[in-house]
Design goal:
With about 70 residues, the protein is mainly alpha-helical. The chain has one domain (about 1-60). Helix content is about 75%, strand content about 0%. The protein has helices at about 1-15, 20-25, 30, 35-60. The radius of gyration is 23 Å and the shape is elongated. This is Uracil phosphoribosyltransferase. GO terms for molecular function: glycosyltransferase activity. Keywords: Glycosyltransferase, Membrane, Transferase, Transmembrane, Transmembrane helix. Pfam families: DUF6341 (PF19868).
Length: about 70
């Protein structure tokens, strides 16, 4: 059973995370955090899209804003 877990370790360390070793040894902080910036930009785009969709539903008056809109309130 231990060979199974060593196999998983080998897969992740030597193959799947190998591209991150390139970023780890860069001397520039900005270049080292490239993946963080990519995820940050994706998150900003998703949040902007979500806020835009909420605004569309709010402008159409489809949102139920009554106090008793949920049964637990």
């Amino acid at each position: 059973m231990s060979k199974f877990f060593y196999g998983i370790e080998d897969l992740f360390v030597n193959y799947l995370f190998a591209p991150y070793d390139f970023f780890r040894f860069l001397h520039s902080w900005w270049a080292s955090n490239t993946m963080n910036w990519i995820f940050f930009v994706i998150g900003l785009i998703a949040a902007a899209y979500w806020m835009n969709q909420l605004k569309i539903f709010n402008d159409n008056g489809e949102e139920d804003k009554s106090i008793s809109s949920h049964s637990y309130l």
